[in-house]
Amino acid sequence: MTSMQSSFVIDLGNHAQVPVISFTATNPSLSSLRSGYFIRATLNDSSQVQAITSLIQTFGWRNVVPIYADNDFGKGIIPSLTSALNEIGTQIPYQSAINPSVFDQEIVAELYKLMTMQTRVFILHMADYLGLRVLNKAQEVGMMTEGYVWIVSDGITNPLNLMGTSLVGSLKGLIGVKPYIPKSRMLDNFTLRWEGKSSKDAKVNVYGLWAYDATTALAMAIEKIGSINSNFKKMSSSRNLVNLGSYIHRVLLCIRFNGLSGDFHLVNGQLQSPSFEIVNGIGDGERVIGFWTMKYGIVREMNSTEKISVGDIIWPGESTSVPKGWVIPTNKKKLKIGIPVNEGYSTRVTGFSVDVFEAVMAALPYAVPFEYIPFTKPNGSPAGNYDELVYQVFLGNFDAVVGDVTIRENRSLYVDFTLPFTESGIIMIVPVKDKKAKNAWVFLKPLTWDLWVTSFCFFIFIGFVIWTLEHGRNEDFNGTLPQQLGTSFWFSFSTMIFTHKEKVVSNLSRLVVIIWCFVVLILTQSYTASLTSTLTIKQLEPIFTSVEELIEKGEVVGYPKGSFLQGLLRNSGMSKLKEYKTSADDLHIKFLKGEIGAAFGEIPYMKIFLAKHCSKYTMVFPKGSPLVPDISRAILHVTEGEKMEKIEKAWFGKQANCPDPSTSMQSNNLGINSFWGLFVIVGVATSFALIIFTFMLVYENKNILMQIHLKDIWKNFITSNRESGGTHIDSVDETNVRPNFSNNEEETMCDQEN
Description:
754 residues, alpha/beta, eight-stranded mixed beta sheet, five-stranded mixed beta sheet, elongated, disordered C terminus
């Protein structure tokens, strides 16, 4: 029972409330009849769609043409196939419907029509008798040669092993999907029995296995009903046939067993099959090159979890290389390349983008004829803006667009862009002014205030440390208190210009002075370099630094004529807009006259305006165009070679170094963060020197310290140094420093002395 006949029989079964079991009706539309008594003991045609689309996605084909029978069986798979292909980004540029009763001449005419198109990937879905006619005629007209791809559904692959050798020869090189039938001892025994009772050419295919399993399921259902209902025979011979049919239907839906075709399991009245075989047609039959499972997709071996590609495939023409899936049409139709134009357009098409495009097309491994069509009105003026130009590709009026077209999100919805070959983006141009304002306090600017304060404090600290270390031993650091303070601070600050004449005699002082001079050297050299930069290098800063400042001050902003930037700037809150021509002279004049305070534009035009170099352009193609990946690869080839450099020099001359305005706005003041490590070193060294000095002082005067109070040490240290100039304490004022001994202790000490 075919899919076309099934709808009539299903209707009869629905009225009689009797189950209708079919093992050949695969049309997905039968499921929409919503008959509670229809049982499909075969696979739905739409179940193989995922396996077919996985194959297409694996090989990266962007366009396919379905060829199907113009009947219910052929049309049933198209909706699910179209939806699945859209999900993976593959387009269907054309659908070929062939009537089952068509003559061979009409098949040949349709195949010649397909040969004039770009697409070379065909999905064939029809009954085997019609499919073989199409494949035979395809072989006659030369469509089974290298470069073509034929993917056939299970309508052709299922009865493949029943075909004669002469018919199988026309299937060489095709790829097909068919339900996976697991091997089992029960299947082997059945095959032996079948071949023993049938003629040599009578072989069983998957439809025979489904028929056997369907019969087995029905027998199991009736047996189950008889075992649980003793009135089964009585019900069969009475008027209760209606109830019996409904009962059998319910029991059938619950039947599950391992049959000849595998797991027999009905879900919503339909047989389920989780796996498909992927076969490759060869000279004398077929060979399995992979499997498709619902869980893992395409795998090399069944029960494998590794998602790897299929095995080696022999393609049409006995080729082993994967076809790219498209070619330039045999009718030599030229690609229509849309070109944007500006006012004053001449009939000659030239430009930087045109030269790059021609270099890219020349780098392709095949010839692509094309012609330039300017996007103009009959009077030669532009026919619209860039959005309208790009939309012409979507409408099919142009095959591609070459020019200074920006990649935008809204445009990418209906066209595909190639790789950009130069820098892209939008920048703002504003007049600049010299921020090198000189005044009497410019010498303070090289250092930040925290570095000035830290340096001053360390000069004071170093002077105190040197005085402490040299006071008792060096005459230059003795004298009255003002003299000592003046000498200490003079010595410290004079190290800044290395003019100190006082000698230091302590090794600790020398260590501190060496380290401090090293720090001072770095500070002075850094200060000199920063001050020199501030006084000599020209520093420019923009008049306006942000869009918010332009909006706040209500400045007039310029934008390129006909550009999408007008809407973008309005949406950002700018109301005072003025258009300018894309020529650099027009923009310069508007700045000189004060007509605009800032200008926005795309990087190519803005860099030409600033430095007479740098451009960013791109080319756009129809959504899903097979040329896009090849063009993008050719762009990489051109941009990585010398050809792009020659084109840039031809149109923009030798590149100049453009100053980056962002660097001129950064402060060059030196802060404490740059020198804190040096100050830490000085602090640690001086602290170390003071600690050593303290220990030496205590050690040299340990006898006296044992007899006096600690609070008198410093006072006697000053007095002794004034008298002897040394650090050793020779005399002690007996009046001020007298030990508190008892009378007995004093007498004992006197006796010892005597």
